[in-house]
Design goal:
mainly alpha; elongated; 30 helices
């Protein structure tokens, strides 16, 4: 039996010859012929290809190639909740408060699970995952080497046991053992990074209350965010890092780098520059990490703007003299320090960007964010010129970015803030198109940062766009990407008011309830005010009355729960007016009038006149008498007018006329 490869080769050869003949016939019909030389070369190539064909036994695919192919066929569902909340549909957050609570709970649960896994690795020795994900496997956190050796010291360093590692290092020195310079460097790095303290294990119970532990702790706008905003540990003079550094006989670049970077990280800026001077005196060459740290600390050791910039330039010149090539972080440190150099920031930031391009270093989003901060001050009294931002987006439009700097995630929200402050809709669309290009949306940051970005974008749309376009974006963003806050919903209500689309208010009210903002008094007052301002068709008025009843049920429910949500005079007046405009809700409107008395709220003149108009149309004399008496009890200036109108337009008994005449005369006096 012939080999399979031979059959395939023969098949390819026959088909190739057939294809060649077909092409010859085709071109012959067009009065063109291949030259004999070309025909011979093609035949030879066909023969050679049939003899040299090698069929691979196995095609190597990426382990996630199938998942990537499937993901490319799926688009985001704008009606679905964010993907991180889809594990359990019953737990998916439906309001902004639930969104915050779910996110914090999810992060806390992940930290607790990781702490349990790392504390009990013996229960997780089997790995069935395919592909294997080392990050999800338990770490070894228990010490296995107890003898006095350098290997035991390395183990403590790898497990980030700062105190145990320092103790082992001192014992090794006292016993006369020699410790390699590499191990000493690793120990210095560990001590300087954690400021000579043991890191608190992730998910441990005492983590939230500690100062140094809690890098995962977050504070969300009054709740938890990043621990960088919480009090940091400070560098103590003559700590273990400095003590071990002074014990070294030979001090090289890495030793100085560990200490200087640790001092800058933990606030000892002047001491860091002192060690840098000591390094220069000892003729030790610095590295790029030392200069990056010192450049970022320059504004902390100089008060005047010119002095800060002169120090930065001096450090850059020393980099050049020591032949230390700058990195992206070097230029980002320069740009970040320039943000604190006042009027010098604009000109020098653009020069820095030009220098980056001249050296072939592509800026990251953090670079552009620092430039925006130099040109656009938040809360400026006059609108900023957005020409620089237009030029910037013209240069980076259609670019796929990856995260290279921790501050990369701040760019999009900063750019959208500038668009909102300047009310520049065109620029806002440019920003959002860059977000949606490729996977740039990953650089929006954590859910809190994403909420800030989409909130600003939606507010800009509500201010500047047509209502139909606003509603299209509204359905696209909510709730899959953004849970609007009360201010965002108020902006939406104002947009509907601007375009006279009051008929959509009942729909927005349903969304307000589903998003959990029906307990915001200012938002409810805005909604009721828009509904009650003008009269509409009976169908729309019926929907408005139903909304007013639902608002009343919200107030009653909040009162039963003991929460501080109570009727204001404005909200009571608007809700009552809405109920009076439909025949089916007049009974509820009179209940609202009793609520005025119970809440000691003053009804408006318009509401009282609408009540009297209903009494006149329905011929209800008793209700009219009750209305005028209620007006008199509140000492309203319209009491005499109401009494006069009732006397003229209603068929009252002599007793009723006498009472109204007395009320009229009393009100006039």
């Amino acid at each position: 039996m012939a080999a399979p490869g031979r059959h395939v080769g023969h098949y390819l050869h026959k088909n190739g010859q057939f294809l060649l003949n077909s092409i010859n016939k085709l071109w012959a019909g067009r009065s063109f012929h291949w030259s004999p030389v070309l025909q011979q070369q093609a035949a030879e190539a066909n023969t050679e290809s049939s003899e040299s064909i090698v069929i691979p036994k196995k095609k190597t695919w990426s382990k996630v190639a199938v998942l990537e192919a499937l993901a490319a066929t799926v688009k985001r569902d704008p009606t679905a909740y964010p993907y991180q909340f889809q594990d359990d549909p019953y737990l998916s957050p439906r309001t902004s408060s639930e969104f915050t609570l779910f996110s914090l709970s999810q992060e806390s649960g992940q930290a607790a699970a990781k702490y349990f896994i790392n504390s009990n690795p013996k229960f997780f020795i089997k790995d069935f995952a395919e592909p294997h994900i080392p990050f999800l496997m338990p770490e070894s956190v228990s010490l296995s080497l107890e003898e006095l050796s350098e290997a035991a010291l390395k183990e403590r360093i790898s497990l980030r046991r700062v105190s145990a590692a320092v103790e082992m290092y001192d014992q090794l020195l006292q016993s006369g053992q020699t410790i390699s310079i590499e191990t000493t460097h690793d120990l210095l790095d560990l001590i300087c990074f954690y400021c000579d303290r043991d890191p608190v294990a992730e998910g441990s119970p005492n983590k939230a209350g500690s100062e140094e532990g809690g890098e995962e702790t977050r504070r969300w706008k009054g709740r938890f965010r990043k621990v960088s905003e919480l009090p940091k540990t400070t560098w103590k003079e003559n700590n273990n890092a400095e003590r071990i550094f002074n014990l070294l006989l030979e001090r090289n670049t890495r030793c100085y780098s560990a200490l200087i970077r640790g001092m800058v990280k933990h606030g000892a800026f002047s001491r860091a520059f002192g060690f840098y001077t000591d390094m220069l005196n000892n003729r030790v060459t610095g590295d790029v990490h030392i200069f990056n740290a010192l450049i970022s600390a320059a504004p902390e050791v100089r008060e005047k703007y010119n002095d800060r910039w002169d120090l930065i330039v001096e450090l850059l010149n020393q980099m050049k003299q020591q032949k230390v090539p700058p990195s992206l972080q070097t230029f980002n440190s320069v740009l970040k320090s320039l943000r604190r150099c006042g009027y010098l920031a604009k000109s020098h930031s653009l020069n820095t960007l030009s220098e980056m391009k001249a050296l072939g270093i592509a800026p990251s989003l953090a670079s552009y964010d620092h430039i925006l901060a130099a040109f656009f001050r938040s809360g400026a009294s006059t609108p900023n010129n957005t020409d620089v931002l237009y030029e910037l987006f013209s240069a980076i439009e259609g670019t796929h970015f990856t995260c290279q700097d921790p501050d990369d995630v701040l760019f999009f929200s900063s750019a959208m803030r500038i668009c909102l402050e300047n009310k520049d809709l065109e620029l806002g669309y440019k920003v959002h198109s860059l977000v949606e290009f490729g996977e740039n949306w990953r650089l929006l940051g954590d859910p809190y940062q994403q909420s800030i970005y989409y909130g600003r974008f939606f507010n800009l749309l509500c201010l500047m766009e047509h209502v139909d376009v606003i509603l299209k974006w509204y359905r696209r963003l909510i709730p899959s990407l953004y849970y609007p806050n009360p201010q965002g919903l108020k902006d939406l209500l104002q947009a509907l008011d601007t375009d006279s689309r009051m008929d959509l208010l009942p729909t927005i009210w349903k969304d307000i309830r589903s998003l959990g903002h029906d307990n915001k008094l200012d938002l409810l007052e805005e909604l009721l005010s828009l509904m009650a301002r003008d009269k509409h068709s009976p169908e729309v008025q019926q929907q408005f009355a139903q909304c007013a009843l639902e608002v009343r049920s919200v107030f009653e429910g909040e009162r039963e729960r003991g929460r501080s949500l109570d009727w204001s005079s404005a909200s009571l007046n608007h809700a009552t007016a809405l109920l009076l405009r439909t025949d089916d809700s007049t009974a509820q409107a009179w209940e609202m009038l009793q609520l005025f008395k119970a809440k000691n709220r003053v009804p408006s003149v318009d509401v009282m006149e609408e009540f009297l108009s209903w009494c006149i149309v329905s011929g209800s004399c008793d209700k009219a008498m009750e209305l005028v008496q209620t007006s008199a009890s509140f000492c309203l200036p319209c009491t005499s007018k109401l009494a006069e109108r009732a006397l003229k337009e209603l068929r009252l008994s002599e007793e009723q006329r006498s009472i109204l005449s007395e009320l009229e005369s009393t009100a006039e006096t």
